[in-house]
Every structure is written in structure tokens, then in C-alpha cells.
Amino acid sequence: MEPSRIAVAGASGLIGSALVRSLTTDGIEVVRLVRRPPRGPGEVRWDPGSGRVDAAGLAGCDAVVNLAGAGVGDRRWTAAYKARIRDSRVQGTTALARTIAAMDRPPAVFVNGSAIGFYGGTGESAVDESAPAGEGFLPGVCVEWEAAAAPAREAGVRTVFPRTGLVVARGGGAWGKLFPLFKAGLGGRLGDGRQYWSFVALHDEVAAIRHLLRREDLSGPFNLTAPQPRTNAEITAAMGRVLHRPTPFPVPAAVLRTVLGEMSGDILGSARVLPTRLQESGFRFAFPEIDGAIRAAL
To answer: Residues 30-75: pLDDT tens digits?
Structure first.
């Protein structure tokens, strides 16, 4: 049974805003966590940096969904921005988990965002939720991010970690930057194009989160990625097909490293991630193939 009152942190982001639209369209009450003074009864104040959450505002919520965090691809990875990527996730999760654990009547479920960055580079090897964490900056962030939810889990709250892949959407994320380039006929493969991109349509991302909210028997990590990851070259070809544009301009790896710095390693790296537990739970993707996911975004 789906919760009837859900608190959402990160409600203004790409996934959060889509989730809120989906929930409210179906008549589910949504409480948004905001960092500014609340403007109405549908908002609750929180300050993840200082660990403060208005616990009274969460009273009566059946679920809390945390999707808050600084965008991984928004800026070059300076030391300061890497700290922001980490802190915005770990501090926010810690604040919510501790608040939930201390409530007299905590929500039944805590859905705390994570990412397939947990696995690091997997090359051509396919991995699922049984795989260990990889090595490097993003795997380290994901490990800390998920570990920060421990107070809620230890208090008996069902805790779920949707490890999200590359979301195919126009409104943000990697694809939000790709669409204008491809529409202008300037798209092309990145590096040698052989790296796997584990994508998910925004529609399926939201549907999967709602599936995890409904199913009272599900907890732990779930990969939110389409069942058939594609290489960057295959995705480039699909973008050209769907948009009816040529894709003549490959971007050499050396150029990406010069322009993007350390973040280029995430783009050039290969992550072939499968949604084994999600599919075993009965979830069905509306857009399992890349062409359909691109069309859905348009």
C-alpha cells in the first residue's frame, strides 16, 4: 500500500520535482523540506548542514524520501566542490535519519537516494546489487551516504537505497546537457565510445521509487537502471536516430580531461549495472530500451 503523506527532501531537483508531480497528481499529500522559512503547511524547514530538521513537521508522514544533494555534473571537481558533493549528501542523510529515529511515531519507510557511482568503474563486466563498492571518489561518497542512514534503520524503519543511473531527461542531469548539443547537430561519442552508460528514463525512475515506497517487504539497495545498459557509442547512435541529426563530432578523451578535469573519469569510465533486485521484486520498465527512453524525454 502506498503511503498517503510523504515528506520529500530535494523536491526541487530533477527527480524530486518529477516525483512530487506524480504523487500529487494521484492525490498523495506531499510535504517539501526547504532550507528557507516555510511558506505554507506543505513545507517543513530543515538545515542539513547544521543537522536541524523540524521533527514536528514530519509528524503524520508515512514515508520520507531524501533526494537532496549537490549536482555531480554541475561544476568542475575542485577540492571544495568535491567536499560539497559529499557533505550535501552525508549531512542531509544524517540529519534526517537521526530525526526519524528520535520520533515517537516514525515514518514506516525511509527512501534515501544513492547512485550507481557506488560500484565505480566496472569495465565490460555487468554488476548488480550483490557487488561490493568500487574505489575512488564517487564510490566513497556513496558508501558514506548510505551508511549515514543507519540511525533510521537501527530504529526499525524500513530503509531503501535507490542507486540511480544516468537519468534520461531534458530538464537536468547529463542528458539535459546532451540534448541541446545533439539537436544542434554537434553530438558525438565521448572518448572511444566503448564505455557502458547505465541509463534510466525519468518516467521509470519515478515509477521505481513509488514501487519501493509501496512494497513493505523491500529494503536495502536497488539499482534504478534500465535492464540493458548501452555503450556511449550506441547511445550516440540512438540520439542521432531519434533526433534525426548527424553525430559527426567525437570528443577525444584528452579534450574531456582538459575541460572537465577529474570528473572526466566518471564520463569516460564504464559502469555496466543491472537492476536485478528491482526486477525480481516485480517491477516492469516502461522504457527498457535507449530509443524509447530518449523519446519519452522528448
So the answer is: 999 999 999 888 999 999 999 999 999 999 999 999 999 998 877 7
Alpha helices in 202-272 (DSSP H): 202-214, 232-243, 253-260, 264-268
- Please enumerate, as own/partner, the contacts of 136-141 that have beta carbons within 8 Å and a separation of 24 or more: 136/265, 137/77, 137/82, 137/262, 138/72, 138/266, 140/86, 141/85, 141/86, 141/89, 141/90, 141/117
pLDDT band at 178 (very low <50, low <70, confident <90, very high): confident
Number of separate domains in the chain: 1
Q: What is the DSSP string of 113-153?
A: -EEGGGG---TT-EE-TTSPP-SSHHHHHHHHHHHTTHHHH
User: What CATH number is associated with residue 9?
Assistant: 3.40.50.720
Of the candidates 246, 238, 221, 251, which has an alpha carbon nearest to the alpha carbon of residue 290? Answer: 238
What mean pLDDT, rounded, does the chain reach?
92
pLDDT over 90 (residue 251): no
- Of 52, 74, 55, 77, nearest in space to 64 by CA: 55
Torsion from C-alpha of 7, 13, 18, 19, nearest 10 degrees: -20
**160: which strand partners?**
111, 220
Task: Tell me what percent of the chain is helix, strand and coil, each rounded to the nearest 5.
Answer: 40, 20, 40
The helix/strand/coil state of 259 is: helix
216-to-1, 63, 100, 259 alpha-carbon distances in Å: 8, 11, 18, 45
Rounded CA separation 268/165 (Å): 15
pTM of the model: 0.95
Residue numbers of the domain that contains 96? 5-297
Which is it for strands 199-201 and 230-231: parallel, antiparallel or unpaired?
unpaired
Buried b (16+ CB within 10 A) or exposed e, 153-168: bebebbbbbbbbbbbb
pLDDT exceeds cutoff 80 at 252? no
